[in-house]
């Protein structure tokens, strides 16, 4: 794993993400039924045949970006309540050999454990399929 020195949300970070296949794209690549785009649409964007979707005005994306630092702090406080003193640092990484495989982690703990934070809105629960 190679650490990439980028600040999440910056133009450089957006360019880096656009140049590879990241965790957010896996659902499309494997054709998961709940993916936000088809594998073909994903391929068309990645090969420059069509522009990508601008998510900057999407309410849920904006809410997640705004709330993520608070969620990270809450997780760190929870860790502390469990006797674990650790910082959760937003980190960008890519594969050592296949540099197009990359991920922008919501956090990385000192032991190398990745942290994925979600700040769902109530509407998210309304569209989720039942479990079981």
UniProtKB/TrEMBL annotation:
The parts of the chain that form a coiled coil are: none
| Gene3D superfamilies per record | 3.90.320.10
All copies of the YqaJ viral recombinase domain together span 12-124
Record protein name field: YqaJ viral recombinase family protein
